Amino acid sequence: MLNTEQKLVKLSDVCEVKIGGTPRRDVGKYWKGGSHPWVSVAELNGNIIENTKEKITDDGVKESNVKLIPTGTVLLSFKMSVGKVAIAGTNLYTNEAIAALLPKKNIYGKYLFYVVPTIAKRGAVSGSLGQGNLNSKKIKELEIPLPFKNNQPDLEGQKFIANKIESLFLKVDEGIQKIDKANSDTEKILQGQLVNIFGSKLPTNWKVVPLGKVCKTTSGGTPNRAIKEYYGGSIPWLKSGELNDNKNITESKELITEKALQNSNAKILEPGTLLMAMYGATVGKLGMLKIKAATNQAVCAFLKNKSVSNDYLFWFLYFYRDSLIRSAFGGAQPNISQALIKNIAIPIPYKDGDPDIKEQEKVVERLNKIKSHISKIEHILLSQENSFEMLKPSIISYTVAGKLVTSPQPVAKKEKVNIFPIQQAIGAILKRFERGEMIVAKILYLGQTIRNVPLNISFTPQNFGPYDQAVKKALTAGLARNNNFFARKGYVYGLSQGSEKLFKYSNSNVLRTMNGFLDTMMPYFQRASSADIERLATICEIVREKKTTDENEVYRRLSEWKPGKFTLQEAQKTLSFIRAQGWDKILIQ
After folding, report:
1. CA of 48: how far to CAs of 97, 202, 486, in Å?
2. Alpha-carbon Rg of the chain, whole angstroms?
3. pLDDT on residue 411
4. Of 141, 217, 361, 430, which one's alpha carbon is 20 to 30 angstroms from that of 584?
5. pLDDT tens digits for range 12-38
């Protein structure tokens, strides 16, 4: 445990700041045959830089404003991508968008490496230079927290904090690696099932036939872009880039007109039509129409037929896609033609000499169930990965706030919270839509803060916005067999058989006020993403805490709380919503 005092000091007080430069590009002798490493912002990735993409010559060094940066120096970007860092692994030079931070006496470079980027990003957000940039003067004026002992910079304290951060980061990385492996393993489960069905020894009643023998294909076209009246109509028109193995396509990015159909190769396709991208970045990707739509010429459409179900065909092409691309095109940019597709050999179950649709449906049902289970697992893993990704900025934020290393403090005794009213409010939410714990917590926060729902929850700032353990306790107790209020469905919660006990006292103040709040807010909650709701609750708490709706002040605090997660435009949009609802008056009072 470390006992130090933390002070704010200007960056220029703890390190020398050197700004790099770029030798003239039109002078060949500055670049050709160069041997001196020269770093650009693109190469700053939290790494140790020993080699660089470009090198400059002795003449480039002598006849330009580049400066020699010694090994071990922290490199910081301060233009465009503010806050990117690296450490010089050798003597090198940098361009003019990079500041080299050379530590003074009793200053630990690794401490600067971890702490300065967050301060720099914050300075860029609150600055007046535009574009989220800094300049040399602004960098030197940045204030960073620094451990002091006996009124001197505490070198050992800095090392302790830097080592602590590094240790925590390693644990975060290990967690992310385990999640990535789990994601990879889930996909292997599906691939294993596909191999068992389509790639191993087939049952005796199955036949392998050319795809063109059992189904018809077609493609679309692109109406003339120069004719404006062809676009902006009411007919969905899909391009190959919109296909991403989605079995429920209900919209398109562009709409075309009837006249466009009449004067191009685009044609209306019926719901249930299977689509495959024939070329472009998404080559081989699939999609299933749930609406009438047209496509461009880069999409192959498999028309519905009586021999092979398009759901069955979807799973076979999903299985076969990689082999098709790899064997047919090698390393070249692949383009799949309809002729090639029609020659694909597809295994199909037969009965009494005809394709057996019922057996195909059994295969589809089996694979859909597996995919459904895998999707639930993937959602849980994604949620966990997002949590891990936010840990690093949170660790740094705690360091910047002076909270990472502290002396032990007596734990304040928390007032006991009655969880049944919280469970009633959660029930009111889940009765309308099923959501995960974090979103339920944000809606509870908004209900309590905006509509005075009497929950007595002590919300505090956490990684994913305002939160309190009372929410988890209420959900966990509601899952218990003796209550059976809630049911967990993958990463979300729903109501269970015992939930009627929550609504038994329909005149309760909690239910009355919570339902009133939800009646007003459900149109918003139903169309909002999880990130939207998280941002709304977080900004409401910032407005309440800071007693202001000033956009720059709110966004500065938002960037401290959740570094890099939300844009200024998103914050402005949320603040506009808060003002339109009149919530700012409630929060600031």
Report:
1. 18, 54, 50
2. 30
3. 43
4. 430
5. 999 999 999 999 999 999 999 999 999
Phi, psi at 183, each rounded to 5°: -60, -45
pLDDT at 549: 92
pLDDT in tens, 267-287: 999 999 999 999 888 889 999
**pLDDT given for residue 408 in this prediction:** 37
Question: What does the longest C-alpha to C-alpha distance in the chain come to?
Answer: 92
- The full DSSP string for 351-381 is ETTEE-HHHHHHHHHHHHHHHHHHHHHHHHH
Hunting for tokens 């939930």 — which residue is that? Answer: 499
> What CA–CA distance (Å, rounded) separates 465 from 536?
9
The SS3 assignment for 417 reads: coil
d(CA 302, CA 434): 35
Residue 97 CA: distances (Å) to CA of 81, 100, 113: 9, 10, 17
DSSP classification of residue 34: -
pLDDT of residue 357: 95
Does residue 291 contact residue 247 with C-beta atoms inside 8 Å?
A: no
State the Cα–Cα distance between residues 51 and 28, nearest whole angstrom.
Answer: 21
Count of other CB atoms within 10 angstroms of residue 343: 12
Percent of the chain past pLDDT 70, that is, above it, reads 92
Report the C-alpha gap between 133 and 82 in whole angstroms: 7
The pLDDT tens digits for 528-569 are 888 899 999 999 999 998 899 999 889 888 888 877 788 888
pTM of the prediction?
0.54
8 A C-beta contact, residue 132 and residue 555: no
Element spanning 444, H or E: helix 437-451
Check if CATH label 3.40.50.720 holds for domain 209-355. Answer: no
What parts of the chain have a pLDDT lower than 50?
Answer: 1, 128-131, 331, 405-413
CATH pick for 5-153 out of 3.20.20.150, 3.30.565.10, 3.40.50.300, 3.90.220.20? 3.90.220.20
Instruction: Fill in the amino acid letter for 504.
Output: K
Cα–Cα dist 409/253, whole Å: 56
Length of the chain equals 589
Give every CB contact of residue 198 below 8 A, 6+ residues apart in sequence. 315, 316, 319, 320, 347
Which amino acid appears at position 28 of this protein?
G
- Write the single-letter amino acid at 379: H
Q: How far apart are alpha carbons 344 and 325 in whole angstroms?
A: 12
Q: Which pLDDT value is given to residue 327?
A: 65
Structure confidence at residue 557 (pLDDT): 87
Nearest CA among 115, 119, 94 for reference residue 39? 94
Closest CA to 100 of 129, 132, 82, 77: 77
